[in-house]
Amino acid sequence: MCCWFLEESGISQRPEARVVLVGPPKGVEVVLQNPLLQNAIHALYLTLENLGIESKRKKLASALKVDLGLEEEWGNLHVYRKCLYCNAGDADVRLVRRWTPDLGLGAKDELFPDEFGDFNGHKFTVVAKRYFPYMDASLETNEPGSRLTVLDSLDTRIFLALARYLNFTFETWSTADSEFGVDKGDGNWTGMVGALQHGHADFSCGITPTRARGQVVDFSRVYIPEPWVIVSLKPQPPPQSWSLVRPLTGTVWLALVLSIFVFAFVLWLLQRAWSWVSGGRGLHLCRALMYAWGTTLEDPPSEPPANPTSRMLVVWWLMFCLVATTAYKSALIAHLTVQLESPPIDTFEDLLGQRGWGWGMSLTGSAMQSFLNTSPDPVIRRLGENVQRLSEVDRTSKVMRGKFAIVEPKYYIKAIVAKNFTNRVGYTPLHVGRKEYAIFAGLAFGYRRGAPFRSKFSESKQRMIEAGLMKHWIDDVFEAFSLKARNAKAKSGEDELLQPMSNGGPVVLSLHHLQGAFYLLFIGCACASFSFLGEKLLVRDLEAAQPVA
């Protein structure tokens, strides 16, 4: 009956509830050590002894010292308490109060003392997953679900600080599937969430708290924010093959070409009208067009038009060409020496606006995947529809090839960039977006349901947060990791593969810069060749058509 009542009351998930049980002395150990009371912080057991053969009414009256009109016959009342960690870190039963007719109820020991100031060397089981810089660990064996050896990281420093302060030890284990936690659909979860759900571990390393996960595990307060960012190749200069046309916009080029044709037509029209009036020699339309084209290229014909009206038109055309060519040449010099770059990708809108681009995220980003699929924001939904779930190697290799971006937590992806894509002087070809998306509150420790020590851990971590230790530790971990990675690259020679395209010094124009001019020359030569072939064919056809004398 007692176990049924404890199970139905859900007392195992209510550690702060006060539990008072009454029974015979022989039931103390059995009842207080019941697994249903493993999380109970305040559990008392009262025993009534030396009452002889009395009715329950007399026993109750003697225990409470209430006059019920019964014959007075006093006995002893013993109060036992369950302590969670008093027996070298294990649970035990202690006698805390004894009531006798002579001495009454003593007040030597507290009924509900604070048990979490000292865990007396209790060993906790922690479930973790490598997620640097938040958690770093190495497997002791190659078998799935084996024990981990923790390495320097933010969570490791928190674990060690709590262990020293609260006097406990811990051992860290991985999960067989190496996941944070995904709902299987039948109420059971995978990964770390599943291990906590089924009581295989006491608490976990940092994990993203969500509404769905909160239904099967408990979370402490968030101790570190986890903003998400976009990572892509740094903006690259456009191809140099179009460097000759890039100084002017398409609208300006179109207006310039139309101006040449309009000027040539007006010049031809004026010359033809003057020739009709004065009887002088007119101007052929093709020659007027070449006149306009040569003037634009700063090589006008040596003979100006004969009539004053056409000369006035040419004067204004020369002024127009002076302004246009000066502006073009100055802009061309600037474009050849200072390379313009495409705008960086900082936001989801920037990413979706790129043509032919793809994007991806990690295979274990279950919380982020759920957010992308259920967000009411159309931009987020569109991002989730085309996201690719890839491994770390595949994601980063696609980014380095270009036209691909990854969406990752800020500190996590910065660690990957620092390790694999940064040289010893700090240069990296990757761009971390400036826009930070606070999609989730951050990271928090997960606990099995009803864990009695959760409040104490949260209180201790709050002190660390207020002291500024979290920010200091993660910056220190990241700095040490980055320095180690840079030194390793310098020794291995991989550092030479990550060099900036320009050192910011004087630019010496090379074939790379002037390739557009050579392409233009080749196109001109090809056009002249085709024109020559066409002319030869035309002449041959004309000669064949003439009658033989």
Name of the CATH class of the largest domain: Alpha Beta
Low-confidence stretches: 51-57, 68-74
Coarse structural class: alpha/beta
> Biggest sheet: strands, sense, closure?
7 strands, mixed
Shape: rod-shaped
At the fourth CATH level, what is the homologous superfamily of the largest domain? Answer: Periplasmic binding protein-like II
Distance between the termini: 133 Å
Strand content: 15-25%
Helix content: 40-55%
CA-based gyration radius: 42 Å
Assembly annotation: single chain
CATH architecture of the largest domain: 3-Layer(aba) Sandwich
In short:
The protein is α/β, with parallel strands linked by helices and 549 residues long.
Sequence-ordered SSE layout with sheet pairings:
Elements (H helix, E strand, L loop, with lengths): L1 H8 L8 E5 L5 H5 L9 E8 L6 H9 L11 E12 L2 E11 L3 E2 L16 E6 L9 E3 L7 E4 L3 H13 L1 E6 L17 H7 L5 E5 L10 E2 L8 E6 L16 H29 L6 H12 L11 H30 L10 H5 L5 E4 L4 H9 L3 H8 L2 E2 L2 H10 L2 E6 H11 L9 E3 L11 E4 L6 H13 L2 H24 L22 H31 L4
Parallel strand pairs: 1-2, 6-9, 6-10, 13-14, 13-15
Antiparallel strand pairs: 2-3, 3-4, 4-5, 7-8, 8-9, 10-17, 11-17, 12-15, 12-16
Structure description:
This protein has 549 residues and is an alpha/beta fold. The chain folds into 4 domains: 104 residues, no CATH class; 105 residues, D-Maltodextrin-Binding Protein, domain 2, CATH 3.40.190.10; 135 residues, Periplasmic binding protein-like II (D-Maltodextrin-Binding Protein, domain 2, 3-Layer(aba) Sandwich); 97 residues. It is 41% helix and 16% strand. It contains 16 helices and 17 strands. The strands form 3 sheets. A 7-stranded mixed beta sheet has the order 7-8-9-6-10-17-11, with helices on both faces. The longest helix has 31 residues. About 3% of the residues have low confidence.
